[in-house]
Every structure is written in structure tokens, then in C-alpha cells.
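Exercise 7 asks you to align residues with C-alpha cells for two separate proteins.
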Amino acid sequence: MTKTNNDFDGWYKESGFITKWNFTTNSVTTNIDLHAKWTPYYGTLPNGIKIYKGDATITDAQMTDAVNTCIAGYNAIRESFGSPNGKFNKVLIISDPEYTWDGSVLGVNFDSGTNYFRGRFEKIANDTLDLTTD
């Protein structure tokens, strides 16, 4: 089962996705409804890492801009320094704080006051990043 630009996150007992159905331990004794949970992603880096919306306050236009900047920056990093595969496995576009990192998920706020990440991705994409000063 697939849904375009979505990851399947499992079957749940409730429409609000509270209790995940466990096919090993749960049993069916009467008719039940199970609800499929899907998580949309907004883009994919060339190495297959998907870009997700980190919170509901981010607009689709902001996501489109952020995805394009991420992909351009990723391509420039890959071409200049080698593929960053293994550094992170998911990108979340967030509204606050400026960034988050948990060892595998990179959260990036492109609209923070300092615009640190937007600036770095744009410099990488435009080949103007100076690693000695930036």
C-alpha cells in the first residue's frame, strides 16, 4: 500500500492515532476499524533522505522554498566534499528553535532571526561558502 509523498506509519485503533495496532499481540474478535497513519514529506534529497514539515505553523510556500534550498545545498556539498550519507536520516523544517539535532534528525528553521542555515545552504548552493570564515 502506498500514498504519494507519504510514509506509512502503521495501523491504529483510533482515528486520532493513539493506540498502534500490534499484529502479534492484538486479536480480532469482532468487526473493527483500523486507521492508516500517513506522514507527508515535501521533498527528497538525492541520497533518499526525506524532508518533512516539523510543525503545523510552516506554510506550504515556506516548505517549497526550504526543500529547494536543501536540495541545492545538498548537491553542492556532495559535489564539493563527498556525500554526507550517514550524517542524518531525516530533515524537518521547523519554526522554532533555530535548529535541532538528535543524532539522526536535523531540524532546520530557515526563517530564524539569524537565518544561519538558510545563509549556509544558499552560500553552498551558489558556491560562495568560505570555510575559513563562514
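Second protein for Exercise 7:
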Amino acid sequence: MNDNPNFLKLINPATDLIAAVRAGMTLEIELDENPTTGYLWSINRLPPELKLLSNIFESSGPGVGAGGRRHFTFIVNGEPITPVIFELKRRLKDLVIKIVIIEFCRFKTPSI
């Protein structure tokens, strides 16, 4: 767990999710992936308020065919009003086997 209020990490989020973000936050999204199957995560729609900082695959092991996680890291430059949409699909094919949609809402600072 990260206690940094300017950082939000989502690991294998549900198909539809609402996340509270604000300008200046770092958003990291991790999605399980196995590139040897030919299916890779890609961003279908990226709100202009999110800037992609990195898109990295991290293998879960040294063996051939090992799966792992795709790490997308963003900086939030404003309050996103449209969702970010990720698709798990084969390269150069139109068949999508999973979609993850992350919508955004206003981040409310907790009152003390």
C-alpha cells in the first residue's frame, strides 16, 4: 500500500472502474499479460488530461512463455472528463478479448 496522496496504483482493475484523481497525481495501472499468446494490452482511448510516461512489460519469470504484467504510468495534468480505455487484443487483429474502462471523478480532500 502506498500512502502517497499524489500516487494511485490500480492492479488488474475490474472491467469498469471509477478512480478519483487530481492534477499532479501519478497514476499507475498494471494489467496481467502474456505476450507469447499474441495478446497485448493497448490504450484505445487516452484523455488529453493524462500524459503517458511509460508503457513497460515486466515478466513474472525467466522461462519462455512466462506471463507478467503490463505497467502503464501516467501523470494527471488536469481533471479527466473522458475515460481511459484499455484493450487486450492480438496485434494487427480486430478481435478484442477484454476491455478495461477507467472513468474519473473529482478527488475530494478528506476533511480533518
